[in-house]
Specification:
The chain has 175 residues and is α+β, with helices and mostly antiparallel strands. The chain has four helices and eleven strands. The chain has two domains: 52 residues, no CATH class; 81 residues, no CATH class. A three-stranded antiparallel beta sheet has the order 5-6-7. The protein starts with 10 loop residues before the first helix and ends in a 9-residue tail after the last strand.
Amino acid sequence: SLIIEIETENIYQDMINDCDLFDFSDYPEEHWVVKNLPKDQWIINEEGKRVLKNTKVIGKWKDENGGDRAIGYAGVRAKCYSVVCENSRKNKIKAKGLKKALIKRELTHKIFEDCVLEGKDDQPRTTQFLRSYRHRMYRIKQTKRSINPLDTKLWLSQDEKADPYVYGDCEIPKE
Protein backbone atom coordinates (compact mmCIF):
# COMPACT_ATOMS: atom_id res chain seq x y z
CA SER A 1 0.00 0.00 0.00
CA LEU A 2 1.02 3.56 -0.66
CA ILE A 3 -0.69 6.54 0.90
CA ILE A 4 -0.06 9.91 -0.72
CA GLU A 5 -1.53 13.38 -0.34
CA ILE A 6 -2.41 15.05 -3.63
CA GLU A 7 -3.20 18.75 -3.82
CA THR A 8 -5.62 19.38 -6.67
CA GLU A 9 -8.96 21.02 -7.41
CA ASN A 10 -10.78 17.70 -7.90
CA ILE A 11 -8.89 14.40 -7.62
CA TYR A 12 -11.78 12.38 -9.03
CA GLN A 13 -11.96 14.53 -12.17
CA ASP A 14 -8.20 14.07 -12.60
CA MET A 15 -8.67 10.31 -12.26
CA ILE A 16 -11.42 10.32 -14.90
CA ASN A 17 -9.15 12.30 -17.25
CA ASP A 18 -6.44 9.61 -16.86
CA CYS A 19 -8.83 6.67 -16.44
CA ASP A 20 -6.58 4.27 -18.40
CA LEU A 21 -4.17 4.33 -15.43
CA PHE A 22 -6.75 3.35 -12.79
CA ASP A 23 -8.79 0.34 -11.68
CA PHE A 24 -12.23 1.55 -10.53
CA SER A 25 -13.66 -1.94 -9.97
CA ASP A 26 -14.14 -1.46 -6.20
CA TYR A 27 -16.15 1.73 -6.62
CA PRO A 28 -19.92 1.37 -6.15
CA GLU A 29 -21.86 1.60 -9.43
CA GLU A 30 -23.73 4.67 -8.17
CA HIS A 31 -20.47 6.60 -7.51
CA TRP A 32 -20.27 9.65 -9.78
CA VAL A 33 -16.78 8.67 -11.00
CA VAL A 34 -18.10 5.38 -12.40
CA LYS A 35 -21.11 7.16 -13.93
CA ASN A 36 -18.83 9.70 -15.67
CA LEU A 37 -16.27 7.28 -17.12
CA PRO A 38 -15.98 7.30 -20.92
CA LYS A 39 -17.75 4.51 -22.81
CA ASP A 40 -14.41 3.02 -23.94
CA GLN A 41 -13.69 2.04 -20.28
CA TRP A 42 -16.44 -0.59 -20.37
CA ILE A 43 -16.26 -4.06 -21.96
CA ILE A 44 -18.55 -7.10 -22.14
CA ASN A 45 -17.00 -10.12 -20.36
CA GLU A 46 -17.42 -13.84 -21.22
CA GLU A 47 -20.70 -14.06 -19.28
CA GLY A 48 -22.12 -11.14 -21.26
CA LYS A 49 -21.88 -8.78 -18.29
CA ARG A 50 -20.76 -5.14 -18.69
CA VAL A 51 -17.58 -4.58 -16.61
CA LEU A 52 -14.78 -2.05 -16.41
CA LYS A 53 -11.84 -2.93 -18.68
CA ASN A 54 -9.15 -2.36 -16.00
CA THR A 55 -10.79 -4.68 -13.44
CA LYS A 56 -8.04 -6.37 -11.37
CA VAL A 57 -5.34 -5.51 -13.94
CA ILE A 58 -1.82 -5.65 -12.50
CA GLY A 59 0.00 -2.32 -12.60
CA LYS A 60 -3.07 -0.09 -12.46
CA TRP A 61 -3.56 2.39 -9.60
CA LYS A 62 -6.36 1.44 -7.25
CA ASP A 63 -8.24 3.38 -4.60
CA GLU A 64 -8.35 0.92 -1.69
CA ASN A 65 -11.22 2.83 -0.11
CA GLY A 66 -13.48 2.41 -3.14
CA GLY A 67 -14.12 6.11 -3.68
CA ASP A 68 -14.46 6.96 0.01
CA ARG A 69 -12.06 9.79 0.88
CA ALA A 70 -9.51 9.33 3.66
CA ILE A 71 -9.75 12.21 6.13
CA GLY A 72 -7.17 11.08 8.69
CA TYR A 73 -3.96 9.04 8.71
CA ALA A 74 -1.50 8.08 11.43
CA GLY A 75 1.41 5.88 10.35
CA VAL A 76 3.64 4.67 13.17
CA ARG A 77 5.93 2.50 11.02
CA ALA A 78 5.73 -0.11 8.27
CA LYS A 79 2.63 -2.31 8.59
CA CYS A 80 1.36 -0.31 11.56
CA TYR A 81 -1.07 2.46 10.66
CA SER A 82 -4.62 3.79 10.95
CA VAL A 83 -6.76 5.42 8.23
CA VAL A 84 -10.02 7.24 8.97
CA CYS A 85 -12.47 7.61 6.06
CA GLU A 86 -15.58 9.72 5.54
CA ASN A 87 -17.63 6.53 5.70
CA SER A 88 -16.63 5.01 9.05
CA ARG A 89 -17.26 1.45 7.78
CA LYS A 90 -14.14 1.80 5.60
CA ASN A 91 -11.82 2.82 8.47
CA LYS A 92 -8.71 0.67 8.49
CA ILE A 93 -6.34 -0.19 11.33
CA LYS A 94 -3.31 -2.40 10.73
CA ALA A 95 -0.85 -3.54 13.39
CA LYS A 96 1.44 -6.38 12.36
CA GLY A 97 1.94 -8.99 15.07
CA LEU A 98 -1.36 -8.39 16.85
CA LYS A 99 -4.44 -10.57 16.45
CA LYS A 100 -7.25 -9.14 14.29
CA ALA A 101 -9.81 -9.52 17.09
CA LEU A 102 -7.60 -7.52 19.46
CA ILE A 103 -7.09 -4.80 16.84
CA LYS A 104 -10.81 -4.54 16.17
CA ARG A 105 -11.79 -4.60 19.86
CA GLU A 106 -9.14 -2.41 21.51
CA LEU A 107 -7.20 -0.17 19.10
CA THR A 108 -8.43 3.24 17.95
CA HIS A 109 -7.18 5.96 15.63
CA LYS A 110 -6.57 8.16 18.71
CA ILE A 111 -3.99 5.66 20.03
CA PHE A 112 -2.06 5.89 16.73
CA GLU A 113 -2.28 9.71 16.70
CA ASP A 114 -0.97 9.95 20.28
CA CYS A 115 1.92 7.66 19.37
CA VAL A 116 2.91 9.66 16.28
CA LEU A 117 2.29 13.21 17.50
CA GLU A 118 3.22 12.93 21.18
CA GLY A 119 5.55 9.90 21.22
CA LYS A 120 3.33 7.99 23.67
CA ASP A 121 3.62 4.24 24.08
CA ASP A 122 0.34 2.36 24.15
CA GLN A 123 -0.27 -0.01 27.05
CA PRO A 124 0.69 -3.68 26.61
CA ARG A 125 -2.20 -5.73 25.20
CA THR A 126 -3.08 -9.28 26.24
CA THR A 127 -4.65 -11.88 23.97
CA GLN A 128 -5.46 -15.57 24.32
CA PHE A 129 -5.28 -18.26 21.65
CA LEU A 130 -4.98 -22.02 21.18
CA ARG A 131 -1.72 -23.63 20.18
CA SER A 132 -0.69 -27.27 19.84
CA TYR A 133 2.67 -28.63 20.96
CA ARG A 134 3.44 -32.31 20.37
CA HIS A 135 -0.21 -33.08 19.59
CA ARG A 136 -1.50 -31.48 22.79
CA MET A 137 -3.65 -28.36 22.82
CA TYR A 138 -2.77 -25.47 25.11
CA ARG A 139 -4.50 -22.18 25.80
CA ILE A 140 -1.84 -19.49 25.62
CA LYS A 141 -2.16 -16.06 27.21
CA GLN A 142 0.26 -13.63 25.59
CA THR A 143 1.04 -9.99 26.41
CA LYS A 144 2.72 -7.82 23.76
CA ARG A 145 3.74 -4.21 23.36
CA SER A 146 1.14 -2.94 20.96
CA ILE A 147 1.79 0.51 19.48
CA ASN A 148 5.00 2.39 20.23
CA PRO A 149 6.83 5.22 18.48
CA LEU A 150 10.13 3.36 18.03
CA ASP A 151 10.76 2.49 14.38
CA THR A 152 13.31 -0.33 14.52
CA LYS A 153 14.10 -0.11 10.80
CA LEU A 154 14.95 3.59 10.32
CA TRP A 155 16.75 6.28 12.30
CA LEU A 156 15.78 9.91 11.52
CA SER A 157 18.37 12.66 11.90
CA GLN A 158 17.38 15.54 14.17
CA ASP A 159 18.43 18.29 11.72
CA GLU A 160 16.03 20.24 9.50
CA LYS A 161 16.26 17.63 6.71
CA ALA A 162 15.29 14.64 8.92
CA ASP A 163 17.26 12.27 6.68
CA PRO A 164 16.39 8.58 7.23
CA TYR A 165 19.20 6.08 7.88
CA VAL A 166 19.09 2.32 8.32
CA TYR A 167 20.18 1.27 11.82
CA GLY A 168 23.91 0.49 11.80
CA ASP A 169 24.70 3.07 9.07
CA CYS A 170 28.11 4.75 9.58
CA GLU A 171 26.50 8.20 9.02
CA ILE A 172 24.52 7.96 12.29
CA PRO A 173 26.25 10.12 14.94
CA LYS A 174 27.79 8.14 17.81
CA GLU A 175 26.54 10.61 20.49
